Amino acid sequence: MTRAQLRAASPRRSPQRIREIDGLRGVALTMVVLFHLFGHGRVSGGVDVFLVVSGFLITMSLASSVHAGRSLDLARRWGRIFTRLAPAAAVTLVFVLLLTMTVLPPWTREQNLGEVIASALYVENWQLISSQLAYNAAGPLTSPVQHFWSLAIQAQFFIALPLAVALIVRIARSPAASLRIVWIVLGIATGASFLYAAWLNGTSPDIAYFSSFTRLWELGLGALMAGLVLRGLRLPGVLGAVAGWIGLALVVGSGWFVDGAQAFPGPLALIPVLGAALVIAASGGRSRGSVATVLGARPLVALDRVSYPLYLWHWPILIAFLAIVGRDTVGVMDAVIILSISILAALATRRFVSRPVEQWAFARPRSQASLITPVVAIGTVVVLAFALLIPQTAAAREEDWDAASPCFGAAAMDPAQAACADAVPTELVPGFAALSKDDDNRSGCWASDGMKEVHVCTLGVEEGYSRHLIAVGDSHNNTLIGAYARIALENGWRIDVAGRGGCYWTTATQRQSSPVEADECRNWTADLTARIQAMPDLDAIIVTHSSAAPLSVPEGADADEYRVQGLVEAWSTRPAGVPIIAIRDNPIFPKSALECALDVDTALRGGCAVPRDEALHDDGTREAVARDANATLIDLTDYMCAPAQCSIAVGGVLVVRDGRHLTATFAHTLAPYLSRALVEALD
Questions:
Q1: Bridge-partner residues for 609, per DSSP?
Q2: Which listed site, 219, 355, 401, 539, has its alpha carbon 20 to 30 Å from 658?
Q3: Residues 190-202: tens digit of each pLDDT
Q4: Would you state the torsion angle of the CA atoms of residues 644, 645, 649, 651, taken in this order, to the nearest 10 degrees?
Q5: What's the rounded mean pLDDT across residues 310-331?
Q6: What's the longest Cα–Cα distance across the chain?
Q7: Phi, psi (rounded to 5 degrees) for 383
Q8: CB atoms inside a 10 Å sphere around CB 28
């Protein structure tokens, strides 16, 4: 929140306390911005402090009203709060809509437009969870509204807490009884949320990071601090001064002590959260050496005035910059330029949007009138985003092409189709509006984050099948599900499929983004081994994995040998006599190849190609197959690449949807050739 938000949330305050809270909030949000720009992917504790302050302020206002016996007037309260929040957010989101349709890659449009709608409705955190998106450092393909997740949690609390307090006031007998119930409920909810956050952060850190329920304890602790302050329980004199400085040090240093992307909002988030609590507990100190001398200084107070719009603007400007210059990271001078532009945008938003709108809205005599402004702001963004989204989804649904063409997709590279050598397709599929969704993966075949056990689905014939195979691996295995399904049905086979993101069947240690995910991967591979050993009628095991999958190679070990040995050892645990059929990984393209394909004519004529030796990486399977007497290698590379280069478009079909994963459309065209190779391997 900004200081403007404070005026809506806290009608009674002392000037000195205001300066300290303003300064704390300004420091918190500025930390977020600076870490995003200069922190090389690290996450500060700024958002955690922001949530503590938000909980503190709204609760101070509500508790003061209840204590004085005043009406809570929820319509007016919500109207004032969201009038200060929604217009600036709406302007930023309209800018993101413009970016989405002009600067950002077309294949991200549908996802980005959906997230803009979720951000406008203050449910972006749940949108990120449902999309299984982790908190990512900035990149040209990162969501330009990812940072709205924290604003969504704040807004949800601003809606839920007044409703809960109003209900308690209605059923309680007196203001004193109402407040006692409020503090009890807040205490229980805060404790339960903390325990849940600690548990979920250890099992599903990506979900924990965004969940309203795991973040509730940070808001709740701020709310409980409001109860202490209202009772006059503040740290006095020297004790307060020391505590305030310690608190500020914890707040500022938290991003350097802990990488919050993996640790927060688990127990380690207590570092910035307790730091904020100490600053609040020490507020009101008058001594020259108190933390108020810094937090109440004019520069910090001035910074706080633009902290909210600065937070809104810096992220989409950063994403736009990366997309325009075609880089994944920014240098120091780049970050300074982005920060400068963001500050100018924040100042302009405050001067020409926030202040005029607030003056107009708050001048209206009726309490319900203040609700008009946020409703109009939110509604405008939602309508605009839907207007842009509908054509994108319609284009994806209505896409149709002649898959029966003898030169369609992989068939264009078939030596038996001599006429295809000189054929030039007239259209490129799938279209960019449908590209990100051109994926045949299924939840039943997939173990996502938080799952330690294998999920197996069955394709083809479930009873009376002539062959029983299981296909296992990471996401590159599951891009072939459509091909597996066609092969199984045409041959009367049963093909089971089991996949997991960033994890495949090997005894080598696979590098993961967190210790939790590393543990989940180990458990998944162990469960997979047990499942395979318990399948008595297996005719073969199909294995494949991404050639870009990283391993944690022991010190002094040869990386290539370690990769190969991990495969060989895993395969050796299979039931005796069951053959291994290893599929070499598909070519991997740089993002520049996808950007090149935006020029459809160039892509269709093979102009978006990369050298074959750059697109193909050693995945270890060829050497592993050579060491296993009952293993066969299937290499489909010649259906995707020419002898000297690999084109991102083959036979009028985009080979990959994101540079690494095969499109479902192209995978389908590989089915006849994969089927023939499997039959030969099984004979």
A1: 647
A2: 401
A3: 999 999 999 998 8
A4: 10
A5: 91
A6: 89
A7: -65, -45
A8: 28
